[in-house]
Amino acid sequence: RTKALAIAIDGPAAAGKSTVAKRVAHQLSYIYIDTGAMYRSLTLKALTEETDLDNEDQLADLLQRTAIVLSQSEDGQHVFLDGEDVSLDIRTNEVTSHVSFVAKHRKVREEMVKRQQDLVKERGVVMDGRDIGTHVIPDAEVKIFMIASVEERAERRHKENTEKGFDSDLEQLKMEIRKRDEIDSKRETAPLVKAKDAIEVDTTSLSIGEVVNKIVTIVHQKEMREG
Ligand code: CDP
Ligand code: CDP
Fold first, then answer.
1. Using CB atoms within 10 A as the burial measure, which of 66, 119, 170, 219 is most buried?
2. Residue 180 in contact with ligand 1 by CB distance below 6 A
């Protein structure tokens, strides 16, 4: 068979990264790694322990004492924080509205990037986040920068929340997404930017299936060439 690759998928909040990355990984029999879940897990712990989110050293110290394990099972990805399944707890509005403040600290990012790179010792991986193509796997064979309009992204999240029976306010979602994009794009350490060699995919008017096919096609072409 052809050589297994590393696929980096970056982009702003709710562009469709994780949904698409999971399906691409499944189709290619690659491993999927959700780096956002790692920042979310640390944020959950920091909120629980009432750590000062502006205090870089305290957060870095907290991370040193924190085990985060991503595991795949039949019913999807599970996230374990110090041995406890927090897969749902890391998706609350409370965590979502604080995570960018935790993720902006250099010392936190350095440790996270180290841990993420340890997970990519072998190829055959799809990793999504904000700095994967630029910092975590700068030599990834395939880099995708996924974007969509703020309106479309907020509507997708709104639909998702409503279907799950959660409270959801479209205008508030738009504000939250804009705010998070701004913090993620303007931070000093590894901000959200398109890597020079990334392919931009605008998913605003594409279905999930269309985006998946587009990326799988790009990967197959690359696999042939890398032989
Ligand atoms: O799924 P969603 O776009 O809402 O967010 P996520 O991918 O779970 O990431 C949550 C937050 O973690 C982002 O808004 C970033 O602040 C941070 N993050 C990051 O800084 N670097 C990454 N590689 C992944 C996430
Ligand atoms: O990981 P990220 O935050 O970039 O986005 P996501 O959680 O994968 O996707 C946000 C929502 O958009 C999910 O409910 C997806 O089902 C939906 N989606 C969509 O409707 N059309 C796409 N082309 C991609 C995602």
1. 219
2. yes
